[in-house]
Design brief:
The protein has 406 residues and is of the alpha/beta class. The protein contains 16 helices and 18 strands. Bound molecules: iron/sulfur cluster (SF4). The site of iron/sulfur cluster (SF4) has 15 residues, from α15.
Length: 406
């Protein structure tokens, strides 16, 4: 897809503005005797403009007050302090620079009041953003699509050549209302579970680059093959499943715990084909003596390394020893720009999601990132990086052009 225009939300998408917003809200409601809110509390109240944020803060504190006066205090304070603690999210500057270099137009469309939006965009991004529009009296606010249509007109792009990127349900709805593809970023102010209506959810900025600029699969294949891994690429999970079934015919098969394999229905397909498959996620004992071992990975680096984290460690153990044929099945969402990014993905994306799924009492369930906890419930007790296939093990990557697992 050739995108001509990329439109971003601002707060929670390009910039982490929570610190400055929190200070401004606390300043605005202080004269009403409202106790200061934390950034965690403010995070749950943003997304529909400053007036709504202030009203939600008053409601949360069972306080009534004149919102216009609060808004005035908020605006005055925020304009003086809006660049004190605000920072661009990791990777954003690189992404914007790459878009600029590629000649792709960029815009910010936000429900933040217009003057502040334009000043803040100029301060942090300068020429990297071509146009900024905040909340104005003459244009309906998001999720109305009017301002997005105006931006598309301005840059001569249509629905197919425009991408809208935001961190909230309002952003997703704005894109839908305009008929434009939406990307929801998980690092912002909305929990990932609420972003499911987006066309794509991303956890890191390099995934946005993959979507806009495409993935060099040839280069990827070269990097894995150079290390001794076999590499198969499939357009769909159904094609990949058929391939795996063929590889497993006449053999005994063990499974590592994997949402990817579960979403693909691989176990059921193997059983339909009378293959001797065993999976402890299907009320069977852990099975590590098969001729084929199927697993996914928490991160695949573009430089050809495979990263897996494990708590029980049966899954990572089977990728190291005693397996004749290891098949590592991943969606493109597992691709990371470097080994460092693959490790970051395993620790700060996969592990917190798995901890949440398993209802573990560990800090990453709340914070969404690894806190290197020492809890007995810690789900990441070992990290294995396969740099080459272990001796005497056939090891292949099955990569699918789809988002699977986490
Ligand atoms: S070490 Fe603890 S906080 Fe970090 S990902 Fe593992 S379980 Fe979560």
């Amino acid at each position: 897809m050739n995108y001509k225009t990329v439109v971003f939300d601002l707060d929670g998408t390009l910039l982490n503005t929570l610190g400055d917003l929190t200070d401004a809200v606390n300043h605005a409601v202080d004269p009403l005797g409202v106790k200061p809110s934390t950034e965690v509390q403010i995070r749950t109240r943003v997304g529909n403009g400053a007036a709504k944020l202030l009203q939600r803060t008053l409601d949360a504190n069972n306080t009534s007050g004149n919102i216009d006066e609060c808004f005035k205090r908020f605006s005055e304070y925020y304009r003086e302090h809006m660049t004190c603690r605000t920072v661009p999210y990791c990777g954003i500057m690189n992404l914007l620079e790459r878009l600029k270099k590629a000649g792709i137009k960029t815009a910010i469309l936000t429900n933040k009041f217009d003057l502040a939006a334009r000043e803040i965009a100029k301060h942090y991004f300068g020429e990297l953003i071509d146009y900024t529009q905040g909340e104005r009296a003459d244009t309906p606010r998001k999720p109305a699509p009017d301002a997005l249509f105006k931006i598309m007109d301005m840059f001569g792009s249509d629905k197919d050549s425009t991408l809208y990127i935001g961190d909230s349900t309002v952003d997703i709805q704005t894109a839908k209302n305009a008929g434009v593809k939406s990307i929801a970023v998980s690092w912002g102010y909305c929990d990932r579970e609420r972003l499911q209506d987006a066309d794509i959810i991303v956890d890191r900025t390099y995934e946005i680059e993959n979507i806009i600029f495409g993935i060099d699969f040839k280069d990827l294949e070269t990097n894995f093959i150079k290390r001794g891994f076999e590499f198969k690429l499939f357009d769909t999970k159904e094609q990949a499943t058929d391939y795996i079934v063929n590889q497993c015919k006449g053999k005994s098969v063990g499974f590592g715990g994997s949402k990817t394999l579960e979403q693909m229905g691989v176990y059921e397909k193997l059983k339909e084909n009378n293959i001797n498959a065993h999976w402890h996620w299907k009320d069977e004992p852990i099975y590590m003596d098969g001729e084929v071992y199927l697993t996914s990975a928490n991160g695949l680096s573009k430089t050809g390394e495979i990263v897996n984290i494990d708590g029980n460690c049966n899954r990572v153990a089977a990728t190291l020893y005693n397996t004749k044929h290891l098949i590592v099945v991943c969606g493109v969402n597992k691709l990371s720009a470097s080994l460092e990014d693959a490790i970051d993905r395993a620790r700060n994306i996969s592990a917190p999601f798995n901890a949440k799924r398993l209802n573990k009492k560990v800090p990453c369930v709340t914070t969404g990132k690894c806190e290197d906890c020492m809890s007995p419930e810690r789900i990441c007790k070992a990290m294995v990086i396969l740099m080459n296939p272990p001796t005497n093990m056939k090891c292949e990557i099955v990569l699918i052009k789809d988002n699977l697992g986490y």
